[in-house]
Amino acid sequence: MRITGGIYRGRTVTCPPGIIRPAMDRMRESVFTILGSVQGLSFLDLFTGSGIIALEAASRGAEPVYAVEKDPGKKTILKKNLSIADQNVHLSIMPAERFVKTWKKPFDLVFLDPPFPYPFKADLLARVAASRLVHPSTQIIIHYPGEETLPDNLAIPRLEGQSSLPRFFQDDSHVSGNSTSPQNTSWTLTHTDTREFGRSLVRFYKPRAHTP
């Protein structure tokens, strides 16, 4: 695999053993074209696999960039791949679900590429949306099999142990013309775009505020 754009364009990335579905060049290039400039934006690559998506983001100027992979057997090759970005990509070896639950700071862009057999994609989306990974302008992107369906809108829930929505959703002052109390504002994760790549789809979501 090769990085498709940015300052590391053309650099080769090794695919670790056990990855049978590396992200296609066309899909990666198209996703970043849709996103536009990511310069200076924070980026999270969950289920990173080879690290290629994180490297595409770093190559285009995103920072900081975090890559999460649960399989410690991929660590050596991942570290070698990510060294292309001169230590500008931070690697966490842990299950994606644990990272979602424990991470405390938001990202501007969150990319999800779970294994195609992963059965909890909609639940994962909801949990990411309700976590501290997300602020009101975060964009979430998910790659998944074309034969599956994901909802167009997901209510952003209060997870177990949360008495309220994450603090990033408690200040609604950015909502134009909104003088309603934050307690009266509800949020959904709203589908904004879908693109087809062979037998797979990429969906884009953003949080959206709703006031009475």
From TrEMBL:
Keywords: Methyltransferase, Transferase. Residues 175-190 have a biased composition (Polar residues). SUPFAM superfamilies: S-adenosyl-L-methionine-dependent methyltransferases. One of its GO terms (molecular function) is nucleic acid binding. Gene3D superfamilies: Vaccinia Virus protein VP39. The keyword Secreted does not apply. Residues 170-190 are annotated as: Disordered. GO terms for biological process: rRNA methylation. Pfam families: Cons_hypoth95 (PF03602). This is Methyltransferase.
